[in-house]
Amino acid sequence: MSIPVPLPRVAAFEKLGFGLFVHWGLYSQLGKGEWAQNIHRIPAREYEKLQSTFTACDFDAEDLARTARDAGMKYIVLTSRHHDGFSLYDTCGLNTYDAPHSPAGRDLVSEYVAACRKYGIVPFFYHTTIDWHWEYRTTAELSQEDFSRYLDYLHDSVKLLCTNYGPIGGLWFDGNWARRQDDWREDRLYGMIRRYQPEAIIINNTGLGNLGRLGHPEIDSVTYEQGSGEPLDREGHAKYMAAEVCRTMNSHWGLGGNDLNFLSPAEVIRLLARCRGCGANLLLNIGPEAQGKVPEYEKQLLRKTGVWCRLYEEAVYGPRPAAGIVCRQGDLMLREGSDFYYFASGLGRCGDSNVTVGANGIGSRAVDNFTEKVTSVRWLDNGEELDFVQDPAKGMLSIFCTGFPYGTDTVVRVAKIETKA
Ligand code: GLC
Question: How many other β-carbons are positioned within 10 Å of the β-carbon of residue 11?
């Protein structure tokens, strides 16, 4: 048994590390999540009216791309079409349920792609595979024939995305879990993508109940919907697949107007560190407002996360999990060549006992199975050298972690460990 080697495009995807998921569409006007049409049983004719009020007047693709960049994110996955069937892109006559036929009157995907290019962000397209609009236009229960016609429509839609916007990062499908028993003709769909976008990453979400499940052999990354970062055992797999955790920062993907259940920057930083510790990407979601504005809280949260990403940049994107090494305090160790990166959590602040509540977490931290000869250990944020003791023959390493300087608390602090080859 062995672990397969990633294809270059898959290795490049892993290095993107942190991405922004954007759920935005007609449903954003209702502010009740992207499943509102289905869950609140809104009749299709009623729901479709949302197209006539969709102006996208607050959608600023450049602001979106900058928000991602400032958050330390390297890619965005935008809902080019979600389950409601409405497309943010020009469907070029496939139907009129798209942004150009709304008061927006523009191809929003084309603005998105241009803005991503400008800010060095890799654009990905989320694309639904189930389609409530299509279903309602045909029959309530799709016959095999209807389904086959629908697959042609899906294929033609995706072909537009592959041919009209230049090179893209990848396609992120979602919905096959709704008809597991059916033949989705994935060979045909993925074959077409490979023809027009040979470097594109292909993902097909396996859904909430199937975290990390392997799919079709063309798939490049497994998904962990609402996961929190679990290592993927690749032993014996036919192909090396990347892993991506996709997460909401509150309780909905699309805007939830009455949803107060938001993560804090500290929680996002811990989550991101944990995902990277497992070798997974983190795709963190925002649900823009009705006409496309990125909500303030989300923006602030992303900005704070960006500060952390910049401080520890060297450790966040390139390094991979250091196989076999065990950090006893639940910390994480990544590796790139002869350099190691120690992610320390729960570190206290240095200072006076009248202002810093306990100095917990300051002191020695033990690492097992570390056999390289260490030459130096230092915090990446301020360059401070750390004391350590080690016995490479026994695989024992102990690092003396000093606390955060008073005035600072970056939640997860990263030390660089240099070793002699
Ligand atoms: C789910 C939902 C969907 C959301 C997606 C993101 O499968 O159906 O609304 O877009 O997960 O992971």
Answer: 13
CATH classification code of 8-311: 3.20.20.80
Listed by start position, the domains of the chain span 8-311, 320-419
pLDDT above 90 coverage of the chain, percent: 84
- Determine the distance separating the centroid of ligand 1 and the alpha carbon of 174, expressed in angstroms: 7
Give me ligand 1 centre to Cα 213, in Å: 16
**Total-model pTM:** 0.96
Domain 320-419 has CATH 2.60.40.1180: yes
* Of 302, 230, 295, the residue nearest 263 (C-alpha): 302
Atom 5 (ligand 1) nearest CA = 174
pLDDT confidence band for 330 (50 / 70 / 90): confident
How buried is residue 164: exposed, middle or buried, by Cβ count under 10 Å (0-12/13-18/19+)? middle
As a 3-state breakdown, the chain gives helix, strand, coil percent values, each rounded to 5, of 30, 25, 45
Report which residue type is found at 79. Answer: T
Pocket test for ligand 1, best of 174, 247, 250 (most atoms within 8 A of CB): 174
- DSSP state string for 369-415: S--SEEEEEEETTT--B--EEEEGGGTEEEEEE--BPTT---SEEEE
Which residues' Cβ are closer than 6 Å to ligand 1? 23, 34-35, 174, 205, 207, 225, 246, 253
What integer best gives the mean pLDDT of the chain?
94
Residue 277: closest CA among 211, 230, 226: 230
